[in-house]
Amino acid sequence: MCVVKSLEKSVQAFEVVPTGARIFAMKSDFKGPGGTWRGGLWYVGFKRIRAVLIPDDGGRPVALTGEWTRSQPATAMAETFARMAAGVELEEV
Predict the structure, then answer these.
(1) Whole-model pTM?
(2) Which of 10, 37, 62, 89 is the most buried (most CB within 10 A)?
(3) Within a domain: 92
(4) What is the pLDDT of residues 8-67, one digit of tens each?
């Protein structure tokens, strides 16, 4: 099963980011068969950060469920999901 299809099946784990939200987009683009995606962070409020997936085709960013108080784990989550959405192979651990 394609990773993008598995992301579609877990659509309940995503929420469209409201227009005007403060989003920090990361520099790395991930290009693959699923398109081009970039990770990002949405600063929801004081010590409330959410990981965001930003499509390169001009679509609206989507936020993953779950909030973090530190940017480091949110950044790792955003980059991992951006790779998965693009269809880029993840490194084995």
Answers:
(1) 0.73
(2) 37
(3) no
(4) 555 456 788 888 888 988 888 888 888 899 999 999 888 899 999 888 888 888 888 888
Count of structural domains within the chain: 1
| Chain segment 54-76, per-residue pLDDT in tens | 888 888 888 888 888 988 888 98
How far is 56 from 84, CA to CA, in rounded Å?
Answer: 14
Asked if 50 contacts 44 with a C-beta cutoff of 8 angstroms, the reply is yes
Residue 75: partners with Cβ closer than 8 Å, 6 or more residues away: 26, 39, 41, 51
Which residues fall within 8 angstroms of residue 37, CB to CB, at 6 or more apart?
29, 30, 53, 54, 55, 56, 82, 83, 85, 86
- 67: tokens are 């909030």
**Token duo for residue 86:** 């693009």
Please give the single-letter amino acid code of residue 30. F
